[in-house]
Amino acid sequence: MFKKKSELLPERVIIRAYVSWKTRLLIVFLVSMLLAMLAWGMYEAGKRTAGAVDAASLATLSEPYHVATCLQKKRSELCTQLAELTRQFQIVQTTNEDLARQTRSLSKENNRLKEELDFFEHVMTGNTKIDNGVSIHQFNLKKDAQPGVYRYSVSMVQGGQRPKDFNGSLKFFVNLQQNDQRKTVLLTNKNAEKSFSISFKFYHRIEESFKIPPDTIVESMKVQVFEQGDSQVKLTQTAEPS
Prior knowledge:
alpha+beta, disordered N terminus, single chain, about 40% helix, 5-stranded antiparallel sheet
């Protein structure tokens, strides 16, 4: 029997060049080295970039916690405003204290002028009779608005035709009660002296204050008038607090 024509054709033969194992090993080594160098270069580049970023981030984070930097850059305006407000507050506080002192001084002077005016009005209208010689016209003791503070005032007059200047002194005694015990305290003037010097012709007024310790009660106050050169009491009068 005859075979088909296609079956009689010879089979294809593929011929490849022979590469030795040494050559193959060299190629693999070169490719591996190239990949390793490429990976190392990428690693170094990334490391440098990360280091720069970390350094910048660290500087940024650490800067706000530095006090001088904070005051100079972050809060300088706030510190300036706070200093200005503090200065203004001190000015206002000092002004208020000065006004309070002036108010007390003006109130004291106003009371003195009112009493003097009332006295001279009574004298001019004849309602107040002034005896010859020195006399105590008015003696008051009042509790002040401040805790433990008392204010006292005494006004003196001198009558008669062509009176001479009266020179003398005053002493003030305060009768206290403290811890169920009574005691008498002699007041002193601004110079720590036990007597208040006076010199006048027709009219003279003294107004002062004193402060008592806590849990102390003022029962009364007494004033004594002494003429210069005489140790004997010339006048005396007592007042209770009102």
